[in-house]
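Dear support,

I submitted the protein below through the web form. The confirmation email said the job was done, but the results page showed an empty box. After a refresh the structure appeared. I'm attaching both so you can tell me whether what I see now is the final result or a partial one.
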Amino acid sequence: MQTLGYAAQSPDSPLAPFHFERRDLRPNDVAMEILYCGVCHSDLHTARNDWGGTVYPAVPGHEIVGRVTGVGPEVTRFKEGDLAAVGCLVDSCRTCDQCEKGEEQYCRTGLTGTYNARDRVDGSNTYGGYSKHIVVREEFVLTLPAGLDPAKAAPLLCAGITTYSPLRTWGVKAGSRVGVVGLGGLGHMAVKLAVAMGADVTVMSRSADKEADARELGAQHFLNTSDKAAMKAAGSSFDLIIDTVPVQHDLMPYVPLLDVDATLCLVGQLGPAPDLNTAPLVLSRKRIAGSLIGGIPETQEMLNFCAEKGVLPEVEMIRMDQINDAFDRMEKSDVRYRFVIDMSSL
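What the results page shows now:
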C-alpha cells in the first residue's frame, strides 16, 4: 500500500513529506487509516538521534488512533470501520515468560517498537504514526472504547500507559499518597489518573507558578521543591512518587519524602543519574525503581479505565506541517500538555 508520511532524513534535517510502502496484509494483520497521532518526546529524540541507533529515514509516532480499513483472514477482533488504537509496541516474541503474562514491553528478545525497529518477519524498518496508514498485527491493536474522544485519546497510548502502569504496579487506590514530579505530558497524565483512582495527589515542582495548573488538573496539594522548610515538613509522607522529569537530575531530594516501603519510580529520564546515597534506602526500606510503558492487556485496561472515569489528556491540535515548530516548542516546554496531529491535514 502506497502511503504518505513525514520523516526525518538525518539528525539535523527537519521532518518533511515522505512517500513509502506499507506492507500487504498478513493473515493476522489489521490495516488502519490514521486519524490522530500524538507527539511524544521520544519522537523528537529519535528524529535527532539523541539516543543513537536511529535508522533513516525515520517516521516517528506511537500514539495512534485510527479507523480500520482492512483485516487479514485470521483476524477476529476487528472489522472494517472500527475505531482502533496502536501504542508503542507492534510486536514481540509472544512466547517468553514476559510475553505470556502480558508484559510484552519486557519481552526477553526485545520489543518491536512502532517506529525505528526491525520487523520480526521481513526485517524492514518500522515506520510510525506520522503517516496516513499503518498495518499492525492484530494482537497489538487496541480497541478504542466508546466514550473516549478519538481526537484527544491518542496521548493515552504512551503518556497515559507510562504513568498508569506504575500506579497499578504499586497498588495505588483510594487514600494512597502519590507525588508527581514534573507537570508536562507525562506528569499531567499521572495527576489525572491518580486522582481518578482516588489517591491524595501532590504535584512537586521548583516553579511556584505551576501550582494553579496542578490544582486545575485535580491535584489536592502542591509542594515547592525549592522551599527547604516545606520539603522537610513533607518527610515520610508519600507511598509512591512518580518522577516524570526527562533530563538528568538529582534524585536525592525526593528520597526523604518517601515513607517506609515507599517507591520513587522513574518514567522520564533514561541514562546515568547523579550519585545516590543508599543509606536512606537501606535504613527505611525505600526503593528507587523504573517503569517502561505497559503491556497490551494493561494498555487496554487503561483505555477502559479512562473511558469509565472520563480521563483524557489536555491537548493542542496541530497540522502535520506544523510538526517542526511543535518539536521546537516541546523542547521549551511550551505546550499544555500534549500535541496531537490531525492527520486529515496530511
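Response: this is the final, complete result; the empty box was a page-load delay. The first helix runs from residue 41 to 47.
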